[in-house]
Known about the structure:
The protein is an alpha/beta fold. The chain has helices at about 10-20, 65-75, 105-115, 150-160, 170-180, 225-235, 255-260, 285-295, and strands at about 5, 25, 30-35, 40-45, 50-55, 80-85, 120-125, 140-145, 160-165, 185-190, 190-195, 200, 215-220, 245-250, 265-270, 280. A six-stranded parallel beta sheet has the order 2-1-5-6-7-8. A hairpin with a 5-residue loop joins strand 3 and strand 4 (about 40-45). The longest helix is centred in the C-terminal third of the chain and has 14 residues, at about 285-295. Bound molecules: ribose-5-phosphate. The site of ribose-5-phosphate has 12 residues, from strand 13 and helix 6.
Amino acid sequence: MKPLLLALPGNETFAAGLASAAGMELGKLQVRRFPDGESYVRIETPVADRRVGLVCNLHRPDEKILQVLFAAEAARELDAKSVGLVSPYLAYLRQDKRFEPGEAVTSVTFAKTVAQYVDWLVTVDPHLHRYPSLEAVYRIPSSVLHAAPLIAFWIRANVPNPVLVGPDGESAQWVSEVAEKAGAPWMALEKIRKGDRVVEVSVPDIARWKDRTPVLVDDIISTARTQIAAVRRLRSAGLRPPVCVGVHAIFAGDAYEALKAAGADRIVTCNTIPHPSNAIDLGALVAGGVGSLLREGAQA
Ligand code: R5P
């Protein structure tokens, strides 16, 4: 029997594309809220003896995670062969250590909870700064996919004469990979984050790139303060209005409008989180990841 995908609310379009690209069936999952805010979850497609993938990007995770866990537990109780989570954007990875005394290391608790309810995990470019790999925090079989080749492809097709710009030192490795695939030069800025919404960046000698279009590339755009600071610095150094590219379009609060107002020429993201800026479709990439994980049979 074909594996079955079930879409959590807001993930229907992505899940439908995934099902058709991966040759899987898209089943029916009913999720709604009771008047008191509690969640009702019902799996309407039989799951017995089938491998089931729950599709849910975990942007705004606190609103979603219980529904995912309820659906996963129900699928297990209804004798699914295995239950996995396809989460193109995986949340709670940034608090990966106790920066200040008394803080909760939420990435560990979140990962432990998810791994208790699902047998496998597929995601795209998880924010792994201090973890060497996803397995270091999620102790279940996983497939980690990378948007870099598709971002490079988009840049090649849409931005003549680009220079790629990473917003901080940590991005250098990733930006250099995209740049190599896009056949473009690159540079990385130095970032100092002074608070959730206060970011400063410094720019190396960039005058030589004035005849190129800067393309800022980052994994997450959340408050957009990182990209806004970079846009301002590039503009004040006399470069052209930059194209801003992100994998995960969080855009908290006024972030999208503020980035446009800061002078971005165009803002482009991948569709790991639905947003009007989505221009790079990762459906086929994720389908490949789900397919290979299921074929490997680690969770059959
Ligand atoms: C940080 O290490 C990440 O790669 C991003 O640069 C960061 O998450 C962006 O956050 P914001 O949009 O809030 O500046």
